[in-house]
Protein: Transcriptional regulator
Organism: Acinetobacter pragensis
Amino acid sequence: MYKSELLAQNLRQMIENEVWKPHEKLPSLREQTQLSGLSLITVLNAYQTLEAQGLVYAKNKSGFYVAERSRQKPSYNAEVSLKKAVQINSAVFHYLKSIQAEDILPFGSAFPNPELLYNQKFMQLLAQHAKRKNSYLNSDSMPPGNLALRKIIANRYILQGMPCTYDDIVITSGALEALNLSLQALTHPGDYIILQQSVFYGAWQAAERLGLQVITIPDHPQHGFDLSAFEQALKQYPIKVCWLMLNCQNPMGFTVNDHIKERIADLLHEYQVYLIEDDVYAELHFDQHKPLPMTYFDRHQRVLHCSSFSKTLGMGTRIGWVHAGQFSDAIQHLQLMSTLSASPLIQNALVDYLSHHHYEKHLRHLRRQLEKLKKKYCQFLKQNLPAMCEFDYHPSGYFLWIRLPEQCDSFKIYEELLSFKIGIAPSLLFRPEHGTQNFLRLNCSYPWNDAIEHAMDQLCCCIENSIQSMPKPSSPSG
Amino acid sequence: MYKSELLAQNLRQMIENEVWKPHEKLPSLREQTQLSGLSLITVLNAYQTLEAQGLVYAKNKSGFYVAERSRQKPSYNAEVSLKKAVQINSAVFHYLKSIQAEDILPFGSAFPNPELLYNQKFMQLLAQHAKRKNSYLNSDSMPPGNLALRKIIANRYILQGMPCTYDDIVITSGALEALNLSLQALTHPGDYIILQQSVFYGAWQAAERLGLQVITIPDHPQHGFDLSAFEQALKQYPIKVCWLMLNCQNPMGFTVNDHIKERIADLLHEYQVYLIEDDVYAELHFDQHKPLPMTYFDRHQRVLHCSSFSKTLGMGTRIGWVHAGQFSDAIQHLQLMSTLSASPLIQNALVDYLSHHHYEKHLRHLRRQLEKLKKKYCQFLKQNLPAMCEFDYHPSGYFLWIRLPEQCDSFKIYEELLSFKIGIAPSLLFRPEHGTQNFLRLNCSYPWNDAIEHAMDQLCCCIENSIQSMPKPSSPSG
C-alpha cells in the first residue's frame, strides 16, 4: 500500500472516531508533514483522497476541514454499490409462503430434501433422550448451551487445524440466529457492512432490521468473489463488518479458493474489519476435503464462523452455533434477551449422536446421494435448457444457479411456474438491489422421477417462451 | 374526560403523526373554536396542556407552534418516572450466570422445580414422535408454526370465552421470543413504552435493545397495579405500547382484579395504545378459576397476549406463542428473519399431548403441589423472618416477594448468600431504576427438606444481620 493511502486510512479512522468533529480543521499540510515525516506531496495526496471520498472539504487557502456526517457518504461508484436504508419489501415473505404449500414441487426450497436428512440413528437417540428428565436440564437451556456439545464442536475445528476451545462456541437456534446475533453484537444502526451481490436473503433482511448501510461486492464470474472490488470497498467506505459466504455459496454454488481466502484474512486485519462467515453448506462438498472456513486463515480474531446441522440432519433440529471467540459473552447476552436457548433435548441427543461417528457415516452417504442427484439434473438441463441459458457445475451442495438471457425476468417465470404447482427461487430474492433479474436457483436434491422430469420440461418450456417473447434486436443500421 | 383533555389528546396524536411539523403553526384559537364547536376557553385549555407537556410553544401574539421533537419530552413527574435511553448494566447477566451453577440452591431461579414439570406422558409422546420423519416437516418449521397446535391454542382461548382463530396465533421459541417480537413489531427506536415498576428483567432488556423510552407505573401496595398513575402516564406521555403482567405477576405475585383490567382495556382504547401482556404464569393459579387475560376485556384489538409451556411443562420445551391478531403477519415476518421457528418435533408432540386431556390432569397436579409448597415456605418464614420483614401470600405461582426494612440492600444479601451456595433474586434485577433495593424474590417450588430448611435459616440469619447493621435512628431531639 502507498504511504499516502496508509495516511488517508489513518486519518479516516480518526475522523470516524471524532478526533476531529465536523467543520473542525485538520492539521495543516505543513504540520502533518512535520509530524509524519512524509513528503508534502504524499500528505497532499492523502488529503485529496479524503476529499474525493467526501470525508473532508478544502477551504480556499485555509486548509482542510472535516465534512458533515451526512456529507461523508461517498458518491456512487461503478464497482461497489451503496444501498442506503435497505428496504426489503415483502417479496421474500410472500415467496416463502407460496413455496411452502404442500402441493408445490420444492425446487425453490433452500433446504435439502428432508428424506435425505433426519438420519434414523439420530432419531432413535432423540427418542431415547426424550424419555429422560436429565435431557432437559435448565443449565442446558441457558447460553452458551450444552457443554459437551460445545466441546465436540470445538474439537471438529481442532481436527480441521484450527485452534478452538468450547468457550469460543455459542449454541443457537439454527445458523440464522447465530448470524443475526453476531451482526447485532458487532454493529450499531447506520454502520456500513459488506454483502456479496447475490446472497442469502436473510442477510439483506438482517441489515434492514438493524438499520445498516449495505455495500455490495459484485459476483466474480470466474472466482466467485471479486477481491479487488472488496479491497476497493474497504478502502473507500468505513466498513465495520462483512457478512460473506465463501463455501458452496448460496445461491451461486461456488467455493472460493484458498489463495483468495488468505488475502481476505489479510485485508480484514489491515482494515480492522470483522467477518461474519455463513458456512452452513460446508459439509456438503463432493470432493474429499471439506473446504476451509475463514477461521483457518484468521490470525487476528477477526472472524465469527456460523454454521448449523439444518442442512445435514434437518432444519427441524434448530441447532446452530457460532465460533464467536472474544464476542462469546456479547452474543450470549443478546441471546439471553431474545430466545434464551436452543432445545436442550436436541442438544443432548446430538452429543450422543456426534460422539459415536454416526454423523461422519451419514455425511458420506448424504454427499454421495446429493452428487448423484446434482449430476442427473445437470445432464437433463444441459440437454433441454434453451441454448441461451448457462449454468456451472460445482462439486458441492444441491443448488444450480441458472443464467437466462438478460432480458428474461425470472420473477415472471417463477409466477408462471407457480400456477403449474412448481416452485423455483427467482434472483430477485438474492440480489434485490440489482437491475436485471435473469437468474434462478434450482434445488436439485429431490429424487428423479416422472413427475420431476415433467416439471423440468415445464421449466425449460417456460424459459423458452420467455426468450421467444423477448424484444428482437433491430437490424444494424447502415 | 374533559372536552379540553380530549382535544389535547387529539392534537397530540396529530403532532406525533406529523400532521404539523416542528415549528409549524397550529390552527389559531379562533379557527380551532370554529372548527370544533368548542368554547374558546376549552380550546385554550387544551393548547396550554400541550404547552405544559412541551409539545407546543407559544409565540407572543402569534399563536401556538409545534416544538422540536427533542423538546417534546416532558419534565420529570413524581408519580411516573421517565427512564431515558435505558441502560441495563450486566448485573442481570452475571446474576443469571451465578445462580446457574449446579451446586447453588435455586431459590433465585425464575423457573419452577423441573422435577414437577416434564410430565412423563409428555416425554413418552415426545419419544414416539422423535422416531417419525413426519414429526419434522419443513412446513412446521416455518412461521406461524404447526397448524394443529395453533388450533388447539386458539380453542383454549375460545373455551375461556374469547374469540380466537388459529390465524391469530404465532408459535415462538418460548414466551420471551413472543414478547420480544411483539415489542419489535409495534415500536421504533425512541418510542415511549410503559412498564410496571417491578417487572421481569427481560422487559428492561428488550427496551434497552430496541432503544425505547421507558415510563414506569409505581407498584400499588393493595391492588398491585396503580390505575390512576397509569392513566396519568397515558395522558402525559406519547405512549405507544404497554408491556404488563397482571396475573401472578413476576416478581410480586399479585393478580389484578377484573374491575381494574376492564378499566385498563378502556384506557388502551381511549389513548390508542397497544398492550403486550406477559401471561406465562396464568395456569399456576390455586383457586378454581384461571385468571382472565386482558384479551378477554379487549374489544378493540389492542392486546397481544403472550404465553408459553415453559412454566408448566418445562423451559426445555422452548415453545411459546403470541395471540397476535392483526399483527400476526408482522411478527411472522420478524421471526422469519431471526430464528425461523420453534422445534417442529416438540410442536408435534405437544399437539398429541394437548389433544388427550393429559395437560389438564398434569396442571391440576402441579397446582396442588405448588400450593402445598408455597404454604410450607410461608409458614416457616412467618415464624423465622425478622419482625421488620413482610410478604403477602398470593394463591398462585411459586414466588414470594419479601420486603425488608428500607435501609437493607438485598443485593448485598444476595452476594453474601452466594458464598453459602444459596441463590436468591435481589430486587435490583426487577426495578433497576429504583433507589431503594429492599426486596427479594424467593422461588418456593423445591420440596422441603433439611437442606432447604437450613438454607432458609441462613437466609433469615443474613437478613437479621443486615438489619442489625442498619444505622440506628438518632433519638428525637427536644
User: Anything to note?
Assistant: The CA atoms of residues 79 and 229 of chain A lie 6 Å apart.
